[in-house]
Amino acid sequence: MDPLASIRVSICWPPEPHSEPEDVLVISGRSGFYLDLRIDKAACSRSPSPTPRKNPSRADPRISWATAGRKELLPLEPGQEHPRARFTALLDSRRPSSSSSPSPDNEDDSAPDEGSFEPLSNGDVLERGFMLRPETGLVAPYEEVWRRLAVKPDARVVFLELVASPGGRSERAYVGRVGEWELGLVDGGEGGFGAVRRERRRDDGRWETTFEAGAGAELPSLADFDVPRDGTTEVELAGRTWRVIEAS
How far apart are alpha carbons 11 and 13 in whole angstroms? Predict the structure, then answer.
């Protein structure tokens, strides 16, 4: 697969009209591993820096949804012409391990999330499929319009999974970089479910944190960390041990 960094333009649950209540960034690697962070615009406008929740099973209210997982391309069925994919979440802010204790090896408890991708005349991509609608708790048809960000063919791609934390703290985390964009998600840290988003500034090339919540502020940046591309399986970073999912 080609590495991708995408922002969402709009979403709708037919027959409702398209709108965009969230600030969404998704990055995915050549391996198909992805990180997806969706930030509630209204919650951000109400409270730019809310006090961290004391209940570790709850995510920061600005995080409307955040997942880490794998994207699988599906074979086309008769009559279909647009690529199809299935998304399987291994980490999900809507079912945090601190409250429901899902096994990272058990993917059967996640709701189906499948869609097809149709290129539009302006270069955007229309995704149509089925996924869980949070307002109803039911699986429903959806449409999302995505805008691909410029990722160079030789862009640096790194995804890491937390293996061990200092003091044996029980937490799960993923950090990833695709070109000029980074995301990190953590579940079970001091601040409950947390996230961080970083981007390289176009004007001076410096990396800037554009969003952080909860224990996401503790997640390391991959901007200046060179993960070997020689098949290394584990690395030490910021006092933690990480499994290399992808380094390409």
Answer: 7
Measured CA distances, 176 to 3, 36, 60, 132, 246 (Å): 12, 10, 20, 25, 9
Residue 167 structural domain = 157-247
User: What are the Cα distances from residue 29, in Å, to 34, 56, 74, 98, 111?
Assistant: 6, 29, 17, 27, 22
pTM: 0.88
CB within 8 A of 171, min separation 6: which ones?
A: 162, 165, 186, 187, 188, 189, 215
Task: Give DSSP secondary structure letters for 32-57.
Answer: SEEEEEEEEHHHHHH-SSPPPPS-TT
Do 38 and 98 fall into the same domain? yes
Q: Are residues 186 and 241 in the same domain?
A: yes
pLDDT tens sequence across 167-204: 666 789 999 999 999 999 999 756 579 999 999 998 89
Q: Kindly state whether residues 136 and 229 are assigned to the same domain.
A: no
46/168 same-domain check = no
**Do 116 and 188 fall into the same domain?**
no
Residue 92 CA: distances (Å) to CA of 54, 150, 179: 19, 27, 24
Which helix or strand (DSSP H or E) is residue 239 part of?
Answer: none
Cα 169–98–24 angle (5° rounding)? 100
Claim to verify: residue 21 and residue 61 sit in the same structural domain: yes
Question: pLDDT tens digits, residue range 236-245?
Answer: 998 889 999 9
Which amino acid, one-letter code, is at 168? Answer: G
Residue carrying the six token digits 């601190």: 98
